[in-house]
Inverse folding.
């Protein structure tokens, strides 16, 4: 039950929430780029106000809270920090009693972060409660008086971040019950199958992450885990490896010594690099299409499912049958549309489709995200079998339990930087946690 | 109690088939109401509209003559619409196709050598494709919406045609009428006493070809994936720019072909108004045929009937010409409406608060 000022309330819509004095600044802005600042502010207000009145109030709030804005400028002209200012001013005009900020610093520069913090402190001092959602521990330590740690939908702990050691916070955030790490014999003696050499790339999408001096070596017979919290470049890393985003320099990425940086996904699959995206529907598979068509989409090169531009549907059906048997996929029919499978079974299909191609290198992003325990076990077993046969697997995952169970070596991806990989057995939780929480550098307070 | 739309767990295959015929039936029903309100005998007018044209050889042949360009253009548009490439300017590509082909014929006039007509047809195809190439390049290089660019180019094409037939290409012996010379060569007539030309046979042939393409080739699969799930298409390794370019060029080529077939067949010269908007109406045909090549053929016949019926209704019931456009609009309206039933089902609901807590 949600209580406001001790009264139980039912929040049926954003409008009800606003009525209760709750205002939210979302991580992905909800502004109309073609409209100007005042018009965008007007859109979020429930009351009617004349433009002149609005302009006056926007200026006033801007002065009072150090959020200068020109009400007449179109939003598409504004920097990310300025856009966020519009969102905040829009909230402030509602005179909120509770301000919710969801990952507000993900698109801000360091200077903008400092300005934001100054504003938030002033608001808090005036009596507005602020709920600040973030996975950046340095920010939590610098800004917040109390912190509640959520993991996998559960409250893990509520602590005072000003007095709690950041490393302890990090360990609680990434979790992983105390367990014997490195109980598996690691095998890291094989030849280098996939190598990325000092690749830096700017983001190619809004809210994307730049990759900075990315280096990795993936060896035959090993599973290399890439840990880290989503939004730190996982998506970009996956796309440059799968070939969905080819890179300008062919030599930047090598498969068994051969430069493949400029090749697309189809050519890379043909050479033996198979990738499995995180998103099952719409990326790994197409929901409306029957399974055999989905087999053709991402396995045609190595299974010979297309000849002279013609799809060999009989072979595609046969291959689909082999996938279904290999990973024990429960499907209403061999020709069923992919969307009719449960999440776990579709993931079995997608992983099976990759394994059946007998890849030299498999890149898997969150392969057990949101699937049942049975499917998780089956997928883990399939990945282990694959490396046992001499292939190499790059496992990009947020699930530390999964990484510790599978990976021979671990690297952490944080803000587009990949740490050097270290044998999983040598790493303690107390080391991994802070790395994932963005604490490579010594924990410092963000100056106000 | 109130009506509510509830999403179906998966699209209904029954309604997928039933949607087009139910749209046609609803259109006829709406026509019935419309005619009653207008004060004309509804039954007789509906008969004049939908059935009278089919009672004579001339009527049936005219139906085919009008359905052929609609089907050709719609067959060209369907792959693009499947792939999410929205070419709205087929009318312009048709016009430029006719202009390009006519340019060849006028340049060679009065030659009637056997290679003149094929050259003109080829010029028509290339002209239409070239006009569609402009939105393709702007889309791929600059991210410009192909919807807007192709649509606006349709008006440019129309103005270009007007400029030519009112100016340099005007028939010197044509008493100042805004039209070109009658072409020295033209498409042969298949059946004496009608305007049936070989282009009419082309539509079913191309439909079968397109069906084979969709059913059996990787390209067909690439098209439907590219429209439905762009990220999956990228992962599969389908090249989006190539698909955009290919779809626009094919649509332009077929629209251009339809244009030059009209010019060298039923019309025989260039006039300021080449078609009653076939290029735009073909969009309705493509969707009425559910973007399926074999569905487009009957769809083209139904829509062609609306053109023909509009003419008969003008003569027999004294209705304005606008009634044709009105019927096409109604048809599209009901088509989009019945499309909802493929994805949703209608439920009666008690008002919120009553009933189940």
């Amino acid at each position: 039950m949600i209580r406001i000022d001790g009264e139980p309330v039912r929040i049926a819509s954003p409008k009800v929430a606003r009525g209760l004095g709750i205002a939210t600044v979302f991580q992905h802005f909800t502004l109309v780029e073609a409209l100007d600042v005042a018009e965008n502010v007007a859109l979020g207000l429930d009351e009617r106000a004349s433009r002149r009145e609005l302009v006056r109030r926007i200026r006033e709030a801007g002065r009072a809270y150090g959020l200068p804005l020109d009400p007449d400028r179109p939003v598409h002209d504004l920097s990310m920090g300025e856009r966020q200012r519009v969102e905040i001013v829009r909230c402030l005009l509602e005179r909120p009693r509770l301000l919710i900020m969801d990952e507000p610093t993900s698109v801000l520069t360091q200077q903008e972060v400092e300005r934001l913090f100054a504003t938030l402190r002033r608001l808090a001092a005036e009596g507005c409660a602020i709920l600040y959602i973030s996975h950046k521990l340095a920010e939590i330590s610098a800004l917040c008086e109390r912190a509640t740690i959520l993991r996998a939908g559960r409250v893990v702990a509520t602590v005072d971040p000003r007095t709690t050691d950041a490393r302890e916070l990090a360990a609680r955030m990434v979790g992983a019950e105390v367990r014997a790490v490195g109980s598996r014999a690691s095998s890291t003696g094989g030849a280098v199958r996939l190598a990325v050499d000092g690749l830096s790339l700017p983001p190619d999408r809004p809210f994307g992450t730049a990759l900075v001096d990315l280096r990795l070596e993936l060896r035959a017979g090993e599973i290399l885990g890439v840990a880290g919290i989503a939004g730190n470049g996982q998506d970009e890393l996956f796309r440059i490896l799968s070939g969905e985003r080819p890179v300008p320099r062919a030599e930047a990425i090598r498969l068994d010594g051969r430069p493949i940086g400029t090749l697309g996904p189809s050519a890379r699959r043909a050479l033996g690099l198979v990738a499995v995206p995180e998103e099952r529907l719409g990326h790994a598979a197409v929901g409306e299409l029957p399974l055999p068509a989905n087999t053709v989409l991402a396995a045609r090169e190595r299974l010979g499912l297309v000849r002279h531009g013609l799809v060999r549907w009989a072979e595609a059906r046969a291959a689909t049958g082999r996938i279904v048997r290999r990973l024990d996929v429960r499907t209403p029919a061999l020709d069923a549309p992919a969307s009719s499978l449960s999440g776990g079974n579709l993931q079995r299909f997608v992983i099976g489709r990759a394994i059946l191609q007998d890849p030299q290198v498999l890149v898997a992003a969150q392969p057990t995200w949101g699937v049942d325990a049975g499917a998780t076990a089956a997928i883990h077993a399939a990945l282990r079998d694959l490396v046992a046969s001499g292939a190499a697997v790059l496992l990009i995952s947020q699930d530390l339990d999964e990484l510790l169970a599978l990976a021979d070596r671990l690297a952490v991806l944080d803000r587009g930087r990949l740490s050097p990989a270290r044998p999983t057995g040598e790493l303690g939780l107390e080391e991994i946690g802070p790395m994932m929480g963005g604490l490579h550098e010594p924990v410092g307070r963000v100056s106000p | 109690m109130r009506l509510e739309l509830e999403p179906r767990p998966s699209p209904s295959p029954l309604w997928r088939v039933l949607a087009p015929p139910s749209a046609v039936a609803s259109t006829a029903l709406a026509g019935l109401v419309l005619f009653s309100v207008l004060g004309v005998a509804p039954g007789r007018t509906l008969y004049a509209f939908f059935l009278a044209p089919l009672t004579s050889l001339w009527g049936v042949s005219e139906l085919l003559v009008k359905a052929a360009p609609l089907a050709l253009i719609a067959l060209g548009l369907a792959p693009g619409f499947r792939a999410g490439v929205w070419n709205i300017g087929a009318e312009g590509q048709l016009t430029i196709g006719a202009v390009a082909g006519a340019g060849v014929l006028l340049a060679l006039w009065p030659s009637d050598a056997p290679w003149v007509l094929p050259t003109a047809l080829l010029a028509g195809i290339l002209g239409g494709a070239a006009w569609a190439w402009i939105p393709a390049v702007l889309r791929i290089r600059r991210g410009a919406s192909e919807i807007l660019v192709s649509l606006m180019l349709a008006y440019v094409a129309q103005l270009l045609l007007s400029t030519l037939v009112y100016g340099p290409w005007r028939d010197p012996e044509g008493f100042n009428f805004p039209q070109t010379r009658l072409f020295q060569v033209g498409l042969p007539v298949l059946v004496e006493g009608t305007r049936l030309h070989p282009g009419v046979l082309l539509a079913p042939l191309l439909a079968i070809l397109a069906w084979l393409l969709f059913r059996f080739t990787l390209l067909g699969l690439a098209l439907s994936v590219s429209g439905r799930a762009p990220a999956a298409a990228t992962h599969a390794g389908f090249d989006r720019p190539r698909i955009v370019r290919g779809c626009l060029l094919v649509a332009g080529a077929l629209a251009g072909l339809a244009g030059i077939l009209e010019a060298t067949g039923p019309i025989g010269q260039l006039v300021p108004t080449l078609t009653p908007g076939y290029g735009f109406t073909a969009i309705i045909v493509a969707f009425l045929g559910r973007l399926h090549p074999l569905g487009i053929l009957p769809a083209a016949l139904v829509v062609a009937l609306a053109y023909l019926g509009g003419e008969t209704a003008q003569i027999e019931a004294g209705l304005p010409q606008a009634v044709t456009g009105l019927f096409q609009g109604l048809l599209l309206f009901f088509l989009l409406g019945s499309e909802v039933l493929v994805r949703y089902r209608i439920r009666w609901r008690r008002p919120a608060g009553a009933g189940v807590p």
